[in-house]
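Re: weekly structure request thread

Next one in the queue (198 aa):
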Amino acid sequence: MAVDIALDGGEALEKLGMNDYDVVVLDRDLPVVHGDEVCRRIVEHAAGPRVLMLTAASGLEHRVQGLEIGADDYLPKPFAFPELVARLRSLARRPARGLTPVLSLDDLTFDIARRRVHRRGQEIRFTAKEYAVLELLMRADGAVVSAEEMLEHAWDENVDPFTATVRVTIANLRRKLGEPPLVETVIGVGYRVVASAP
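Done, posted below.
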C-alpha cells in the first residue's frame, strides 16, 4: 500500500485535492477541519475514495452517525492491525463510485474489483504497482499518461521523482501482456494503451 499522511483536516483536504486515493483512513476528531466535514466533502464527489473512519468514538450512536455522514466503514479504537489491513483491502477492491468495474481493450479485460486481468482467456498476474499502472492506462482510454501522473497515483509522496521505477514497471507490463504490444511510448510525453492492429 502506498500511504500519504495528513496530520489535520485541512492538510487532508489539500492532499485530496491533489491526489486520487482509493481509501481514506479518517479520524473524526481532527484539528483545523473536523473529520466529519472532511468525510462530507469526500462523499460530495461521485468518484471520491472510500472512507474508513478509525476513531476512539466507539458508541453505537457514533458508529451510526459516522456511517450516515458517508463513511463506508467504521472501526473503533483500540483495533487489531490485521483487521484494519483486511478492511482496507476490502474497501480498495470495491470499484470507486461512478467508475466502470471491468475495463477492456481488444482481447484484454481487467476486473478492477477482483484484481484479475485476462488476455485471450489467460489470466495474467501482476504486482500491485503493475496493476495500478495498467488501470491508469486503461482508464485513460488511449490518452497519454505521463510518468509524473503514474508516480502520483501509483506510488506515495516519498518516491524519488527521478527514479526509473516507471520505466521498469512499463517494461514488465509489456513483457507480461505479450504480443501484439498494447502499451505504446510517446517519446517525451508518456505512455498510452493502443488497440492492436487487425
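Helices lie at 9-18, 35-44, 60-69, 81-93, 128-140, 147-154, 165-177. The chain has two domains: 9-93, 102-193.
Next request, please.
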